[in-house]
Amino acid sequence: NTDADERLSAVWDVMKKYMLPFTEENIRYGDYSTSVETQAEELFAHFPTMDGMLCANDMMASTVYKVCERHGRTVGKDIAVTGFDDDSQLAPYMEPPLTTVRQNAYSMGMMALHKAVALCRGEKPEPALDEARLVVRASCGCKMVREMEFPKPDFSSDAAAIRYTKGVAEMLCNNLLLPNTGTAQAEPICREIEQRLQNG
User: Fold this and answer.
1) Is 150 helix (H, G, I), strand (E, B) or coil?
2) CA nearest 64: which of 19, 101, 96, 107?
3) How many CB atoms sit inside 10 A of residue 53's CB?
4) What is the spatial distance between Cα 105 and Cα 60, in angstroms, rounded to a whole number?
5) Pairing of β 52-54 and β 133-135
6) Lesser CB count within 10 Å: N end or C end of the chain?
7) Cβ atoms < 10 Å from Cβ of 92
8) 40: which strand partners?
9) pLDDT tens for the chain, residues 1 to 200
């Protein structure tokens, strides 16, 4: 599988570039489906304190989430998990949303079509490469910006302005800080914001 070979080769290259310990023992081979519980369990058995798991696609990552939960590890906090493909029906809706790599299937399809037409004309098309893009979400432990609808500002009085600002502060804490840093770390920040608002 050319895709599988290229993805694995990229992992080897990055580990070597940053001089991270990585051997064949760190790898288990799946089939791009959700049926990879055995492989994930084997990795946990060999590396019980590992802090990250790279998955060659989003489907396998969804199973890794379940195995992590079974081992009492919170994805995005205790262990980082990444996928590949950016499955629009899966990756953004996992809990936490999955950090993954997006391929532009439309662009790749168009390139393939143009090359097929060139072959039909007797031409010899050149190899092409379509760049993939990293999509950072919360599963890697990174902060994730969520889309939010802020209430309409009300500055008709000092009291109204304080209520509005406090509401926005709470929204930011609940939607940006809590899902990414953990309640214990976010609550003191929320309290400090509220206290400063009350003190003017």
Assistant:
1) coil
2) 96
3) 24
4) 19
5) unpaired
6) C
7) 13
8) none
9) 888 898 999 999 999 999 999 999 999 999 999 999 999 999 999 999 999 999 999 999 999 999 999 999 999 999 999 999 999 899 999 999 999 999 877 788 888 898 999 999 999 888 887 788 899 899 998 765 455 566 677 778 877 877 777 777 776 666 555 444 444 455 666 666 667 666 66
